[in-house]
Amino acid sequence: MKYTITGDNLQFVNVQLDADEKIQSEAGAMRYMTGNVTMEAKMKGGLFKGLKRAISGDSFFLVDYQAHGGTGIVGLGGAAPGKIVDIDISKGTWIVQKTGYLASELGVDLDIAFQKKLGSVFFGGEGFVLQKLSGQGIAFVAACGDFNIVDLKPGEKYKVSTANAVAWQETVSYDIEAAGGIKTALFGGGVAV
Known about the structure:
By secondary structure, the chain is mainly beta. It is built from three helices and 16 strands.
């Protein structure tokens, strides 16, 4: 699969599909495609897997795109202005905020992940359910605004507003703590991870 990510504040993934090559996306992600590309909504993994996707903030159905009779192009984009990053899931499992998944190669499995600490459910701002991407292939994650990608060293801590934590590898420990005292936590937007 060949692709480019284009645009500034409203990015698109332009995927070039060779004949009979496929890619999948969340429902509603397609922005444009060439005339030789077909799309088909599928309940991947059956009813239970579809329900789990819906609970995690994704669509009940995933959409497959396939080129016929030659190379085709599919343009995919997020629901709001923002950026898109590509992640090689073959290098490890990723946890993504519930609306972050945009598209992937068919070898990427989309599932749900749960917050491990009760405090993160009530004070984290992102809820109890997240998305888990595993398997083989490239996945595309979209979010509003820009990305600040941080490569954590072993033992390094980084505090991020929970509304701005988009994706992290499954090996990263994630917890919620108040940023300062009660007054700061209540009136300063004070939860951090």
